[in-house]
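Annual report, structural modelling task.

Input specification for the flavin-adenine dinucleotide complex:
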Amino acid sequence: MKLYDLAVVGSGIGGSMIASLNKDKNTIIFEKDKNLGGCASTFKRYGSYFNAGATTFVGYEENHPIKEIFDKANYKPDITKSDIAIRIIQNKKVIDRIKDFDKFIEDINKAYPNKNNKIFWQKIKDIDEKFWQLKKLYYSKYSLNAYIKTINSFIELFFNFNTYIFKSAKSFIKEILGDISKEYQDFIDAQLLITLQTTSKEITVLSLALGLAYPFHDVFYVNGGMGSLFEGLLNDIDLKRKEQIVKIIKEKDKYRLISKKDEYLTSNIVLNSTIYDCANLFEDKEIQKYYQRFSFNNQSAFVVNFNLDTNEDLLHHYQIILDKKIPNTISNSFFISFSSKDDKKMSKNGYSVTISTHTNASYWENINKDEYIKQKALCENFIIDSFVEHFENINKKDIINISSATSKTFRRYINRANCGGNAITLKNIFQLPSCTTPFKGLYNVGDTIFAGQGWPGIAIGVKVLNEELNG
Ligand SMILES: Cc1cc2nc3c(=O)[nH]c(=O)nc-3n(C[C@H](O)[C@H](O)[C@H](O)COP(=O)(O)OP(=O)(O)OC[C@H]3O[C@@H](n4cnc5c(N)ncnc54)[C@H](O)[C@@H]3O)c2cc1C
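The model returned the following structure:
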């Protein structure tokens, strides 16, 4: 049996970034699916390519962990800046989330007049900018060194943000903007739901700022689909595609990984499966017990993919906010991404479109097959009708190659029913799982671990993990 220094289980954002940072070691990475990237993968269906979940790439800029990680991996992604990060449409109002602060304030003042809009959004921008300049950001457990670094990080956070790390977002909004309309509140919460998986009710001011400020950064479109980033990051690494690890056995100072094809021995193992799916991999009772402590986060995604045959010029991203909830979901908004017209791979058969919204995993798990098919179609049709209603020159007949995904689809392909990770809320701020575990050589990475979801959140976690792995 071949012995490895590092085995990574899963090629999601976390798994791929940590593997690429350690490619000079004797490293191996396993991916269950044929596509790399998990929630950020690109798949082929009906002869067309579609992004499975993630479509926006943020954080590829100086002094940001993503750029640092890509540079260390010596990989330059093929990306294009989106001039308008998202166009938000709500009750015929159109608000462009753009980097140009003054222009954005003009838009927001027209849509939701408030004498303190500028003060509020400037604070959001300032907090976010300050956050990405922090030098000691760290969250890890189970060793003296880890606790010291974590405490230093909290001191740095407190020194820079004072009460904003504990103060509730809701009271901050009220303090500056006063009692805002339901429409303005929905506008804020719909964006938080896509960036943080939660609304302003549950989070701190710091999370609020990070969740709302991402369009003030450069937002990139990934040419050839989001999944192409993983092909690049893992280019020169020992990669086992379509090989699921089904069991892991702890043996003295090593771990034995068992797939349906082979067995492997490793000194260090990084699990990119969600924290909720790790217990099942082990027979060791102590390890099982450790992972069972983390109760399942029921949040998941409903995604519709299709090709759109139109001559309309469309932006990369839109968010539509409705007055009522979308059937079988927990949201009144959906996020639409279009491929670039000049992207030869993605736009071969018209625009490649990904529409996503939030749903509960348990809903789809607990209905029978006939009901599942019926309810899935209901949700899909509602979203498509609503999409067409919001774009004057787009007709239903222009939409082809439709497919949609629920938590069950995600589980089938990428082994997870929860999608979108864990938000840092007022309730869980000290209970989040860290990348380290109480077991030597066993680590976790991904959006259910500190610091949460998406490219920027996971990259922070990868940086900490890399420090833990390499001292
Ligand atoms: C609909 C949707 C839209 C999103 N939009 C954006 C966006 O625009 N921008 C953004 O930055 N983020 C976005 N996110 C969030 C982001 O996609 C996720 O937070 C991120 O992709 C999760 O990465 P991860 O490292 O946790 O790995 P995952 O995506 O969970 O991938 C884990 C991988 O491990 C593999 N695996 C699991 N178990 C095993 C095993 N036993 N053996 C082998 N392989 C295994 C899986 O097949 C999978 O490929 C979106 C998420 C969703 C669901």
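The mean pLDDT is 95.
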